[in-house]
Structure to design on (78 residues):
């Protein structure tokens, strides 16, 4: 599965690796994706999310119910 955060939408970005001699080759910056299980009281079940570390912080601040409601409103399957 690709490295996409279900909360923030972060995806891999691309850039260049530059050596000491300034030869440029392609590289990929991947977000730090973690697989987490959360208990969602409004749904009455646990939900498994693939979230970035920024997404985990957002869940801690806003609460899992609000975040899951936003994710479902965007049409992301959980």
């Amino acid at each position: 599965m690709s490295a996409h955060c279900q909360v923030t939408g972060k995806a891999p970005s691309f850039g260049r690796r530059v050596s000491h001699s300034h030869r440029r080759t392609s590289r990929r910056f991947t977000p730090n994706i973690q697989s987490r299980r959360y208990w969602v009281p409004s749904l009455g079940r646990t939900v498994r999310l693939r979230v970035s570390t920024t997404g985990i912080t957002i869940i801690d601040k806003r609460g899992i119910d609000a975040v899951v409601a936003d994710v479902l409103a965007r049409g992301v399957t959980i």
